[in-house]
Specification:
The chain has 5 helices and 5 strands. The chain is α+β, with helices and mostly antiparallel strands.
């Protein structure tokens, strides 16, 4: 019973995590313009993995697709790759997890096979969640490094740039980063629950075949019965 609850709970959490990772991957606001100190007439910009967007004062939004592979840094490409891996592995593990549920009947699938499928789905959920968290963390580290370089002027002892000097555009964390972190965490928790459920399912489905012990030289019951009937016939 506990194994079924852990299996179902891991499936639900993993499915929610996959949905969050997919949503974060397609969102365009991984980094948003830091609006501290901006005037009202300034243009609001935000960036994603696939598009950069600008919102004018009139409310019109214009997005520029990020085509190509060679025009961007290696870390940015790594973030893209890790998020794609997280999405693909999450979808595959969700499918395997669905077919491994005990409430789902598929032919003559044995419980031992479903237990192995549960373990496989749990490991894949954990790896996919780790990829999602790593991708969001690498992107966040880029934002922090860029923020420090643009918000502070090293020529003035690390103090903020004073009035009269041209301030560079700084960016801060966007909502997509938090969605990716939450989704990755849910997938990892779901993967751990499914791995724990495998232990309970494996113990329940361990094959046990009782073997009757017979001392050496001891005749079988059938042989004893035949010998006894033979002796009775002789006496008659």
């Amino acid at each position: 019973m506990a194994g079924n609850m852990l299996q179902n709970g891991g499936f639900v959490l993993g499915l929610l995590g996959v949905a969050a990772i997919i949503a974060a991957t397609v969102m365009n606001n991984w980094s948003t313009k830091d609006r501290q100190g901006d005037v009202v007439t300034s243009v609001y910009t935000y960036k994603g993995l696939w598009q950069d967007c600008e919102v004018s004062t009139s409310g019109f939004t214009e997005c520029r697709p990020l085509y190509g592979l060679l025009g961007y840094s290696g870390q940015f490409q790594a973030v893209r790759a890790m998020m794609i891996i997280a999405v693909v592995m999450g979808l595959i593990s969700a499918g395997i997890s669905f077919f491994s549920l005990k409430c789902f009947k598929m032919g003559n699938t044995e419980d031992s096979s479903k237990a192995k499928m549960t373990l496989t789905a749990g490991i894949m959920f954990a790896i996919a969640g780790l990829c999602g968290i790593a991708g969001a963390s690498v992107y966040a580290n880029q934002i922090v490094a860029s923020f420090r370089m643009t918000a502070y002027n090293p020529n003035y002892g690390g103090m903020p740039q004073m009035e009269g000097m041209q301030m560079a555009t700084t960016y801060t964390f966007g909502p997509a980063l938090f969605v990716a972190w939450i989704g990755g965490g849910l997938m990892q928790i779901g993967g751990v629950l499914k791995c724990v459920a495998f232990k309970g399912m494996h113990d329940e489905t361990t094959p046990y075949k009782p073997v009757a012990y017979r001392a050496p030289g001891q005749p079988k019951a059938s042989e004893e019965g035949s010998d006894r009937s033979t002796r009775d016939q002789k006496y008659v």
